[in-house]
Amino acid sequence: MRTKKMNPFLVTLSEKVLENTTYSYQGESFVFVLQGTLEMLLNSQEIALEEGDCIYFDTSLEHRFCSRESTGRVILEVTSSRP
User: Which residues of 37-75 are buried (b: 16+ CB within 10 A; e: fewer)?
Assistant: First the structure.
């Protein structure tokens, strides 16, 4: 069995995301916005992402998704972790 290095997720954010918790772990992440708009907090910087936008970042940086809208958003997130 091969060890996976990447983990893909299709994420639907259907409610307002107001949580203030940030996350960090060893690895990298690629996020592509398939539908809707959302904000991302990356190392205290707010980044607006719209449909068709993507971002690639080091997940050791503090990060989280946030949105004050209650419309549906769909993202493709691919993460990798480092040993």
Answer: ebbbbbeeeeeebeeeeebeeebeeebebbbeeeeebbb
